Amino acid sequence: MAEVESIRPFGPARSTVKGEPLSKEEIELYNDFFKASCYLSLGMIYLKENPLLRDPLKGNHLKTRLLGHFGSALGQICTYMHFNRPIKKHDLNAIFISGPGYGAPAVLSQSYLEGVYFEKFFKSFSFPSGIGSYATPETLGSLYECGELGYSISHAFGTVFNSPNLIALTIVGDGEAETGHLATAWHSNKFLNPIVDGAVLPPYFVEGDDIETMHQAMAATLEHCGWTGPRKVDNNYLAGFWRAHQVPITDPATNPQHLKILEEWMRSYEPDRLFDESGKPIPSLRALCPDSNRHMSVNPIANGGQLRKPLKMPNFKDYAIKFLWDVIAANQTNFRLFGPDETESNKLGGYFEEDENGGNLAKAGCIMEMLSEHTCEGWLEGYILSGRHGLLNSYKPFIYIIDSMVNQIEKRLKVEWRYKVASLNILLTAVIWRQDHNGFTHQDPGFLDVVANKSPEVMRIYLPPDGNCLLSVMDHCFRSINYINIIMSDKQKHLQYLSIDAAIMHCTKGIDISTYESLAAIDLLLQHFPELKICCVNCVDLFKLIHPGDHPHGLTDKEWMVHRLTYRRPGSKNLHVRGYKEKGNIDTPLELAIRNQTDRFSLSIDAIDWMPKLHNRGAAAREAMLNAQIAARNQAFETGMDSPFLKNWTWKRNGQWNKVADGLASR
Amino acid sequence: MAEVESIRPFGPARSTVKGEPLSKEEIELYNDFFKASCYLSLGMIYLKENPLLRDPLKGNHLKTRLLGHFGSALGQICTYMHFNRPIKKHDLNAIFISGPGYGAPAVLSQSYLEGVYFEKFFKSFSFPSGIGSYATPETLGSLYECGELGYSISHAFGTVFNSPNLIALTIVGDGEAETGHLATAWHSNKFLNPIVDGAVLPPYFVEGDDIETMHQAMAATLEHCGWTGPRKVDNNYLAGFWRAHQVPITDPATNPQHLKILEEWMRSYEPDRLFDESGKPIPSLRALCPDSNRHMSVNPIANGGQLRKPLKMPNFKDYAIKFLWDVIAANQTNFRLFGPDETESNKLGGYFEEDENGGNLAKAGCIMEMLSEHTCEGWLEGYILSGRHGLLNSYKPFIYIIDSMVNQIEKRLKVEWRYKVASLNILLTAVIWRQDHNGFTHQDPGFLDVVANKSPEVMRIYLPPDGNCLLSVMDHCFRSINYINIIMSDKQKHLQYLSIDAAIMHCTKGIDISTYESLAAIDLLLQHFPELKICCVNCVDLFKLIHPGDHPHGLTDKEWMVHRLTYRRPGSKNLHVRGYKEKGNIDTPLELAIRNQTDRFSLSIDAIDWMPKLHNRGAAAREAMLNAQIAARNQAFETGMDSPFLKNWTWKRNGQWNKVADGLASR
């Protein structure tokens, strides 16, 4: 034990909140509880046999592959167990959100002591298809921690929004705190509304490693926090408490001295006294846990589908544009719209107005904006996973900033035994095809590439071509459960093709009608090749294209089929898809200007010398290039239309759009 | 003007550094420079004709689509122009890194005043294939800002690492500061080494909007910073300075009153006096700029390929494992290894040792670790874009956290007129196929999906199957320029298939040999179907599979062809690829235990009641399930081998691996 004890850096507890609420007997009880928790954590990491150390420890009792981070367990255990006291005393509704990586031993030890797990517990830890070494989606009381670090704070806030009586006891890992996801989520406290969400108290600090004073300090701090209702206690004071953060002794199976140290260490937690022969904790320990309806390890909030109430849905057929507005107004404690500072830019700014009936929509904070895709997505996840509904609106070119988060929640939504939560809805605007003014860097469809490879049971992609179709799709998405719905709809003004009834029909069929430029292209084709027969298909539900064996929305072979998505389709060879392709080269601005015959700017000789391609052409040639003056062709831009095709179409067929809107099939 | 002036929130300058270094005449000169800069910024946003306002402003002089964020321009202009003073005075080598979104008017106005751009300047701004409204990759002096916010701090630090004489003048946007990328990058200052990188001074604050005192304060502050050599000045004090952050007046073309206000506003900057008839700034303004070799707008650092020196490369054929160690040791000021806290875990920990010759490798900080993929990637980008070499090592399951950043630098590397920089090398370990202990959430190959769609000229994917092949691939990647090399190599111990010479041959061919499980699968197949003819192909260079028309590494049709990648290949129908497929369902832990006949844990009745699938089966059934005890089959795990296939193979063919390593083709 000397090796372990020698590195204690702290000593007696120092804490913000003073007090000694525990009696001598209670300190002993909590000390036992802490010992039992530590014992269980070590047992999960090391033991596959001899779980209670009733026999001397031998190398063959040990697991071969040692996993789990012991260093991150102690602080979490100490926080969890001491918060059980205020839970019992004040009948609090609390959930535990574990941020540190591979910290499952902490959570699982508490779950075991609450009586949720029993038998074969050590052996199953971190074993393929057993219990994960971090709080996996399958971990019962976990809101979810997924291996990718950084979600804890935004998830915690998402969980307590509109849940004034819920306490999210949140542990932030020291490594996690360095991630982009977490670093920006600290702003979340600015978004808590004291009326609908309750207040957040300033953090309280507890540090030390002297067991008795630590129990007093933790009990005093957490009782104070619990009674006054904070939403957060963050805590990583245990860094450095033991020598190693992960597995403290890595070679006990082969090093007899280390095996001896490990055995002494484990026995110091007194498993003989604290667990009965069957491995159950002794009654005095169980008595420190709340009643089962208040166990943090099985709080219904962490299985939020159980609490989900359907949205009150206005009839979308009655609406032109203000549908979302009324969805928000009718569900002020059950729906939120999140967005990274683009809500106004994305033409949803109308929703910021005050309710004309004098309501407190603005105060209730149903629309939340912060320029962090990570935090907005995390908020939305916490909000829906705890049983509510929501929508993230963002900008298609940069949504792939959070594609890893979408990947992770997709995995959570697939845990079949959980109650179904509301769908995670993402509305993407500013499609990549209309980024000619922003240019190359705003052009990337990579997010859909990622999404298209995800599980058919969870992923949905909708591409409504006009406002009425968008209404129909949004209505469907808000009513749906347990999907990730990606809805893409450009924010610029567009033509209206379909009446509301036609739109419903088209969206139900999933595959129909058309978009601007394809129509304009058809017009040009028909001018030049009048004998051509053209059928223009717009796909609202992208997964209609896949084989029905691979996605439940897939049409049967008789009905329809696009290359990669249409693999296994008859006739797929006759179909050619022209999608986004990364440009090969970017020329100098000057060369571009010459090639495109456009009216551009000039560069100084100094600047041109700075470019290797031009540097070698000689001063005269460079001078000549420099002075090249080219005629302008800025027409399309000046009209405000990005697309010359569209301009041509409207000039050619002015007034004809209404007819097309009646139904393309009739052409 | 009243509308503009009425919202000034600040008043006279308040600043950390006091002083009045400017004479009355100098204040007037800098005021003129500031006016000219503001005028150019407004002109870029609004004007397509009548650029110098020699005629009264009319609606048809205005652009139809107004783009550019004026609000973010003023602070940047003020910082840039006042830093020209210390640059001139002390002959400083400085680069300007612009973080705020759509802030190009600030940078471009300075570039114009330095004489780098001239003619047709306003008209080309934010026009398709013209000058971008943010500091695009094409923007001359831009290290690069790409629309996706958040890169400025990590890029700035990457640029000054091992550049003790360089000053990166960095502007952080207020929106940018909320992004995950930026929020975590503030830790970068902890990583600057005062010996090799120089020191960073604490930030200095300047705020106010009274022009004269602001000029004095900015001059005093920046002269102080410049003289003492800071690396950063961050500055977003202008938020709120004008009413609007983006385009301040949005409807001057249709609102005559607003047109009048705009004209008065623009004329207040005195374009008649500050620009000659051809639009050139008057000589007294040009005199405030540094000589052309010190212009921040064309600093060679921002075109870092110009400064790139090849690495000193040891002969990799002489090495077993320590190759990378010696690359680092031989290039201590020209190479860095970056990683998100996984360098030790990824078996590169040996590199942390002290140089045995007593060198100061550790002090020089050639290996940098922080648990932020965003910051590590940003550092690497800044480091190579400013002319050096580096490697990011990370963990395949979570590399897609930064796939948006990889997408963006790919676009930068394609700007053909820039000097070529060293390749961006990413070494990925912990492949998804070996995540059975971590489970489902660590399994996702989405990063390669994204990368495989990127430009063939830039993207390279290498999958070396053993250590010698890895050496050969790394040697190639470190010598290469202007690529993004993704190298995937599992961190666990593996079999060695090839001698070093065979490895070079195989890696040069790009497509050859095999991996563990496919070999084991072949063995099983041959046991059960001895008549089968099997050819096992391992692909080191993934792009060998694409048609040569689509990627320069593509093999010709005679040589070879995998489904999506082999589109257009003859015989592609006979090839079946079995890749990663997201699992359909996750069962309850209990059901999994029953199905897999494994020895798992049990759950309490409370916990089972919490799962809707089990809740409805009745107490007796639940009790029965709860008590189900199943025999164990933990063999594979206990051996330390994850793969039962592998175990079978080594048992069946013990000792045969060497023969296979001599060349699979001979089977």
Question: Can you walk through the features of this model?
Answer:
- Chains A, B: It holds the Pfam family XFP.
- Chains A, B: This is XFP N-terminal domain-containing protein.
- Chains A, B: One of its GO terms (biological process) is carbohydrate metabolic process.
- Chain A is an alpha/beta fold and 667 residues long.
- Chain A is built from 27 helices and 12 strands.
- A 6-stranded parallel sheet of chain A has the order 7-6-8-9-11-10, with helices on both faces. Chain A has a two-stranded antiparallel ribbon with strand order 1-5. Chain A has a two-stranded parallel ribbon with strand order 2-4.
- In chain A, helix 16 links the parallel strand 8 and strand 9.
- In chain A, helix 2 (24-46) crosses helix 3.
- Chains A and B meet through strand 3, helix 5, helix 7, helix 15 and helix 16 of A and strand 3, helix 5, helix 7, helix 15 and helix 16 of B.
- Strand 3 (117-118) of chain A pairs antiparallel with strand 12 of chain B, so a sheet runs across the interface.
Write the layout of secondary structure elements.
2 copies of one chain form a homodimer.
Chain A lengths: L1 H4 L8 E2 L8 H23 L26 H18 L2 E6 L5 H10 L3 E2 L2 H4 L27 H9 L5 E6 L8 H6 L20 E2 L3 H18 L27 H12 L3 H4 L8 H4 L36 H8 L4 E5 L4 H5 L12 H4 L2 E3 L3 H13 L3 E7 L7 H11 L10 E6 L16 H7 L6 E4 L4 H13 L4 E5 L11 H10 L6 H13 L60 H8 L5 E2 L1 H5 L2 H4 L3 H9 L7 H4 L5 H9 L4 H5 L6
Parallel strand pairs in A: 2-4, 6-7, 6-8, 8-9, 9-11, 10-11
Antiparallel strand pairs in A: 1-5
